[in-house]
């Protein structure tokens, strides 16, 4: 199956309200252009330098999503063009994104990452930290960022019931914030389950581009 065939097959299986982020990390521009030529306009990267290189080379109607863990000192490299930052897990990071967005006279959309997995390695806020952040004076003062929703990563396991519970938990938190429009959860292995649980944005890489 070609990248185009994979992409069109996945797209045809997604409900209309679900956005597909093609996870293109480590893949060459030629692969991304095959997806682009098949109509894909939203790409997700997890390394800012790699994403910036691709942004410089590729058509300018692409939405670039930063889906990896973000270090504050790297925000400046993507502030001019990034469309959505998925994994925001601290007020300090939001402040830095705000500061860099202001330099470019932009408002950058962000998703707050909620910790839902049964694993120590994942990043994210718990429900209390999320509420504290959203109710803080500092957060309210930030004019150049817009938190548009939540993002979470389920435990890496074959236990579908556990994954379902984690996704449902994240959806229940999401539902408490009517101002949020985007719920980013689900990857190649579990995106159908994530959609069943209310995801509006899925991050799919290997099922489109093949293995790393």
Mind explaining what this structure looks like?
The chain is an alpha/beta fold. It is built from 9 helices and 8 strands. An 8-stranded parallel sheet has the order 7-6-5-4-3-2-1-8. Helix 4 links the parallel strand 4 and strand 5. The chain is globular. The two termini are 16 Å apart. The relative contact order is 0.15. The mean pLDDT is 96.
Helix percent reads 25-40%
Report the C-alpha radius of gyration, rounded.
17 Å
Coarse morphology: globular
Q: What is the count of β-strands? A: 8
Structural class: alpha/beta
Largest sheet entry: 8 strands, parallel
Assembly state: single chain
The number of helical elements comes to 9
Write out key terms for the chains shown.
212 residues, alpha/beta, 8-stranded parallel sheet, 9 helices, 38% helix, 18% strand
What's the quick description here?
The chain is built from nine helices and eight strands.
Question: Helices, strands, pairings?
Answer:
Layout: H1 3-13, E1 19-23, H2 29-37, E2 42-45, H3 48-57, E3 63-66, E4 84-88, H4 91-103, E5 108-113, H5 127-134, H6 137-141, E6 145-151, H7 160-174, E7 182-184, H8 191-196, E8 201-204, H9 206-209
Parallel strand pairs: 1-2, 1-8, 2-3, 3-4, 4-5, 5-6, 6-7
